[in-house]
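Human: I hope this is not a bother. Would you mind checking the protein record under this note? Thank you for your patience.
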Amino acid sequence: MVETTEVKAFGNEAADAQLEQLNIKRRKTTPHDVEIDILFCGVCHSDLHTARSEWGPTMYPCVPGHEIVGKVKSVGGHVSKFKVGDMVGVGCIVDSCRECEYCKDDLEQYCEPGMTGTYNAPDTHLKDSPTFGGYSESIVVDENYVLRIPENLDLAAAAPLLCAGITTYSPLHHWQVGPGKKVGVVGIGGLGHMAIKIAKAMGAHVVAFTTSESKFAEAKRLGADEVVLSKDAEQMAAFKGKLHFMLDAVSAEHDVNAYLRLLRVDGSLALVGAPEHPLPVSAFSLIVGRKSFAGSAIGGIKETQEMLDFCGKHNIVADIEMIDMQNINEAYERLLKGDVKYRFVIDMASLKGQN
């Protein structure tokens, strides 16, 4: 029987219920566990979708949060990678089967039986309970799924790297973005703003695409070499057949064929946004030019650590707005309107100060 302890958290009990303070059970550290005192937690669009049961049935109570940064509070007797006081992170994965070909290739995000998500997944330790995420005082995670945060990074602004950072780094890395490559980034939001920063640090020539002229200056500030108004046919036509790779971070319905036309022969467009409805793709958008339309999901633990180290080397963090835990419902409403530049991060001291 696994011993448990109660901690404060913020979550909801039903899809139409607001998030509120509640108590949840965390396991006490087992031999390979790291107990983390959570300092900051980023707010991802996935949190909102899951809390509202918009991505399939959610297990309630639901405590979201998978962009977690904190300090190691205690470690199990067999832990060798971390010690008390270390600054660490937890992303979207807290366990996987460890035995399938993908886990063995450090691709735990594609684990065949299915990875264990940081929240809303069956807890492999506490039976009949879902995993609970980072909107809480603390979390206990196997050391193999804990990440080290570079010392030079601002801890709050580093939190979104655990999802937004790796979601954009992984495809840019996989498709070998670097010097001599022209890379398009579609959508300048939570994901897109990270993609611009990371692609630029990789040495690529970055072209940002936006539906809003008001974002031109922002895109340049983030590191874009050129900015294109995607609603302007003439501006789009100027890039036809010019780009080696495109990262599409748009979650709304849009015409993906307009962007596939901008790829060079053998170019690839990777989708990291998650539109609710299927995107129609013309066969001729792919056939003419031997182009690829692909997707990508987060990254494995090894690659996530590589991303953090890369961001540490290049001093890359997210642009954030700090909020108190008690303002999460208002933040969700603003998130739906795109009213944040570019990621909310919760200061968990606000939860810990609550009775």
